[in-house]
């Protein structure tokens, strides 16, 4: 490929990307304001009424000056007519302003709330891999800061751009009815403003994008820093985290400074140019009046209208940086709204019952942006009600298998079947309502213990709650708490120990009476006594149910129907606990190494 051809293809690619961004912005704006066009139209009508004094006052003022300068040419009734019209349009400003803002605010506030709701809904339907690649702090910045910037942009459009647009139209129409010579002078100001905007647009958009991306990066780092405080404090790394944040804040400050300087130069340039134009307009109209080509009063009219044109254009130019930020925020949230990385499976077949048969057929899996398979040609058939345990070194593919069972990930090739149905055909919502997952990293929210246990269940009896508590060995813990089940556990359950948090997660699984159970090292944070009690309870939980277990402690899986030994994404051994020990292979070596560690 020649150099010129390469440059041409690169330009075409950039052009296509820009066209895609523009198309996405337009679609986003359409989605945002759909259903609110009538409110905005009514608001516009009341805007015309409330803003009418600004357009009528120069005409009345010119008429009165001409009346005073040439009293012989006018009757007294003309004076009272002008004064009456001006008084009426001024008084009506009060109700029309209130109605204008009322309809506008209803539309914009509804868009703001709907947009945040839509973003949250979209985030709930995006794939787990999408969430894994985008830091939670960045998502928060999009939902909070970007939506706020869009709201500001909407208000600026309605309160700044729209009045400016109408001021220019009215001024040119009225002036054109009186003098085409003056109108031609007015029309020169418009292309000048377009040139100024065009000159600064690219640099402003670039500065806004850099600043927005840096703020998102900072937001993500702040969220991560807050979560890491216990670890940071435990290892005496406060200065390291402070320096990391200081470096990031330095970059934010630098990008913000460049944006401010660009906006300042932009605003000053248009002010100087328009002030010079205003001086020229005054000189031009006075000269026409001196020659007798226009009445003296019209000098005030034209000067006032030209001032309105300049102020309107200047106002739009001054708020253009805010509009640019708003459009950049629209682009930012469109990354979520139009993301195509939805849930891995979109099947429609609802499962009324789940017997629990699972098949892995020639499954290969690799994570995005990786060339290494985590699973390679993995085959496994699990019978209904069977308990399968997975063991192996870190990175062997154990947790990946559980993620494939829950439908969080789709195999790169091969397929997974549930009750002889390919997961592509199964409704994930109906499937997941029939399973219980206890992850290694317990996920709790800042509510009460009762709310965390019954999360997502509309109707739960007190008997079911108490039964789940007993089975999860939580009774003694709850009795010691001041508010019992209603005790607030803080964000992520930070007021509880790791073992207590894990038992709440296990109680959450018990109360759902699942038909399939997935345990990802669910007892890793428990002491030996609690672990024994939980193991006894789990026997009741998994009785007759298909169960997948990833175990760290080999002693916890002695009763598993089959143990699958994973190594480098492959199943290297499979059998009961006793069979694998007798084989003296990988599992036996793991068992001996584990016992050696405990004895030392």
TrEMBL record:
Gene3D superfamilies xref list: ABC transporter type 1, transmembrane domain, P-loop containing nucleotide triphosphate hydrolases
Domain ABC transporter: 358-593
PROSITE patterns reported in the protein's UniProt record: ABC_TM1F (PS50929), ABC_TRANSPORTER_1 (PS00211), ABC_TRANSPORTER_2 (PS50893)
GO MF term list: ABC-type oligopeptide transporter activity; ATP binding; ATP hydrolysis activity
Keyword Lyase: no
Superkingdom classification of source: Bacteria
UniProt entry keywords in alphabetical sequence: ATP-binding, Membrane, Nucleotide-binding, Transmembrane, Transmembrane helix
Pfam families linked: ABC_membrane (PF00664), ABC_tran (PF00005)
Transmembrane intervals: 37-57, 77-94, 158-176, 182-200, 265-290
Protein name (record): ABC transporter ATP-binding protein
Membrane topology type: Multi-pass membrane protein
GO CC annotation terms, alphabetical: plasma membrane
Source organism (scientific name): Gracilibacillus oryzae
Record's subcellular location: Cell membrane
Residue stretches making up the ABC transmembrane type-1 domain: 56-325
Family (UniProt): Belongs to the ABC transporter superfamily.
